[in-house]
Prior knowledge:
Chain A is mostly helical. Chain A is built from eight helices and no strands. A two-stranded antiparallel sheet of chain B has the order 1-2.
Amino acid sequence: MWRDAWVIAGKDLRIEARSKVALNQLGPYAIVVLLIFGFAFDQDRPLLTQAAPGLFWVGVVFSGVLAVQRSLGIESADGALDNLRLSRLEPAGIFLGKTVAVALQLVVLELLLAFGVVVLFHSELAGAGLLLASGLVSALGVAAAGVAYATVSSGLRARETLLPLLLVPVLAPIVLSATEAWRSALGLSAADGWRWLGLLSCFTAIYVAGGVVCFGSLMEET
Amino acid sequence: MRSSRVPSHALLSRALGWSALAALAVDAWWGLWVSPPDVVQGQFVRMLYVHPAVATMCYAGFGLCAVASIAWLWPRLRSPRWDRLAVAGAEVGAVFCAATLITGSIWGRASWGVWWTWDARLTLTAILFALSLGYLALRRAIATPSARATVSSMVALLMALTVVVDHYATDWFVTLHQGETLPVPSPTVHGWQLATMLESFVAFGLLFAWLVVHRYRMETLEERYDAGAYTLALRSRRSEGGSVAAGLTVAAKHTTPAVVLPGAGAGAGAGTGTGTGTLGGAAASSVSAQRTVEVPAR
């Protein structure tokens, strides 16, 4: 399973490295989302600094939806998904491989968004350990839920609209707990950020485990 | 000649419907006139006779959906009836979830001074509603029955997980929403308030059961209609084999013929399989269209 995951993750990352879609399209999109938030709050600097963690994670989710759509989109072309089904790769390995590839892209996006938050919203990054841990765990959670739901909607005609409707409510617990962890790390809240990280890890574990168990059936049925 | 005997499922439906109506009337009577106003909440306590029962039926709907989904996913139990039960539970649960949000919002405005607050219980209920809409949208998007049942069953399990977290949200998080009103063995309400509240659970429970029975039956009828339309289209296509030229003439003259469909449509008759319905020109004309396209290939 792990070998299959490595093969799939390598394939997806090679495709991204060659096409540079994440770099050329998702990155600028994520920055545009931050700019739109800036316009929406009318350049109210204290409010933007206060809301920065929430806006950051909303940006990650919006970009994440596009990233997972792209990840399964490349399998829809030329019957690639059928070839994957017919290959001797384990479905759990395929799921883990795609999840890891999307999660790595999300980590890069998170770094870009964090830079944007510092520059545009004047946030001062502190509590590096908590920020880094919650960033990595939530990237994995968003990627796991995203890959599972993108697989569900990949064969459907209304997939572009159906995926956000299915996925965004599922990601709400991740956004909530990651936001609270970041608020704690940045000193904007008195709550214990490590407890929120624990909740975040629970949801991520559920999404990864659910994906590993269900991905084979999802691939067969869609 | 039409039999005057009423089928058992129709009798059950009628009994449930009339019982629900009577119980809701009693709930309204006790809730609005018999039960006294509360010392703290005054007249607003009357929402107690609607909101908790509606919220419980919302959980019951999604719970029913989850149980039926597990039964579908279990290979030894797999049967289309579980899928029908799952969609019935989810759809009725979504209706009660919307009612929960509306009644809760009204009560919140009266008690807290705001229509909405970002409380854990409220937020999770809103997420649950969004999940249920996604579940129903997903079902509409997948055409193959078995694929639809399997994929939506997996989504239903996640919905059930949200129900559990939502239910215990007032214990696990610091929330503005009050905790349980009826903790066993010492409820926080007594006398007529307790009686009316318990009666509201019976009334909305009967309404829930009535809606589930109807939705289940509707799903059965839809499946029969789809199966009937498919069989008819297949039979019609096979019968064309003899004369393509004659078929072309028919297609040119009758672009939208009406097709009699055994066991479909026509209200209650379709449920018993004795009635007849009419399939509009769509299926027949699509058959004709296929025929005209295939001629050059031959």
